[in-house]
Amino acid sequence: MFYLKYRPKKISEIDNSSVRDVLRKVLESKNIPHALLFTGQKGTGKTSAARIFAKTVNCLNNKFKESSLSIEPCNQCSNCLSIDKSTSIDVLEIDAASNRGIEEIKNLIRKTAFLPMRARFRVFIIDEAHMITNEGFNALLKTLEEPPETAIFILATTNPEKIPTTIASRCVKINFGKAKKDDIILMLKRIAANEGLEFNEDFFTLIANSSENSFRDATKLFEELIIQKITKLEEVERFLGLKGKNNFRKLIEKNDIKAALSWIEQFAQEGGNFKNLIEQMLDELRLMLLAKKGLNRENEYQTSLTTEQIVSLIKLLMEAYQNLRISPIESLPLEIAIVEFYNIRK
Ligand SMILES: Nc1ncnc2c1ncn2[C@@H]1O[C@H](COP(=O)(O)OP(=O)(O)O)[C@@H](O)[C@H]1O
Ligand SMILES: [Mg+2]
Ligand SMILES: [Zn+2]
Hints:
- It is a single chain.
- By secondary structure, the protein is of the alpha/beta class.
- It has 3 domains: 2-177, Rossmann fold, CATH 3.40.50; 181-240, Helicase, Ruva Protein, domain 3 (Orthogonal Bundle); 245-345, Zinc Finger, Delta Prime, domain 3, CATH 1.20.272.10.
- It has helices at 2-5, 17-28, 46-58, 78-84, 102-112, 134-145, 165-168, 181-195, 201-209, 215-227, 233-240, 245-254, 257-269, 274-292, 307-323, 332-345, and strands spanning 35-40, 91-95, 122-127, 151-157, 172-177.
- Strands 2-3-4-1-5 form a 5-stranded parallel sheet, covered by helices on one side.
- It starts with a helix and ends with a helix.
- The structure holds adenosine-5'-diphosphate, magnesium ion and zinc ion (ZN).
């Protein structure tokens, strides 16, 4: 699996540049923090970075052991290897979604009293930290106020607003945010090069655009395409459910409701992905709107639709997008949007 094979294993492999720089600074500073809070969307590298952090401070062959000038973990010593395999007795990963109560947290705090067995620091990685109960947070707070010399806590969460400020204020915060398209493309190129595969830029861009700003989703999609031997752009578009998108746009511009509705029907029959389709349409309509106002000079986005028509179609599609989740028939929200659009146009 690509997303496991290409999990970043050292600082330089973290593809979000801002995180990489902050992490390096923190690790190079004289005082290693004893509590950190990693926040950001799923699949942006929080768990990977937490493991890299644990390896860096515990590696037997880097600057922390003074046998090297680099702070990068060697990924070869017994500490690095066991942390990578999640078998280290000194690095504990806890999922707060299933261990959220006071007993579990007390249990964890008890463990912080023990000295590390093989490493310099015991690192406690608490995933989904926002799930911890109030009592749990209270218990944790006392430990964070005076953490043992040899303990490091890394709290990771997708919902930072649910972490009490008392806790958050005691942590060094690193925001992973959302994965940027350019960073995702860099990652995909790194994987492709490693696998000895070549693709053109558009291929990577298309994947990056369809992966909800998540490195993990992008990696999985990329792998799926390779497994299914989907390499041509049109094939990728079809796979993503954008087949004939351009034809559909022309249909809308041409004011032919019958043709538009039968296009949608066929799209549904072929198993097209409506969420993706509407996202792409909105993206395009936005660019058309900008083109109308002279902000986007690309010919591709010139259209016979008026500004008012574009705006009302955007509004209708946004409504359709929200209704996708509750609609028993996948095609229905888009069909309604299109019918209403033609009514307005008349
Ligand atoms: N910063 C990154 N650089 C490169 N790949 C990444 C990065 N972050 C995540 N990935 C990819 O996504 C997968 C999941 O990352 P993970 O660290 O578990 O994210 P999170 O804990 O934020 O959900 C990794 O195995 C890797 O394939
Ligand atoms: Mg994670
Ligand atoms: Zn090492």
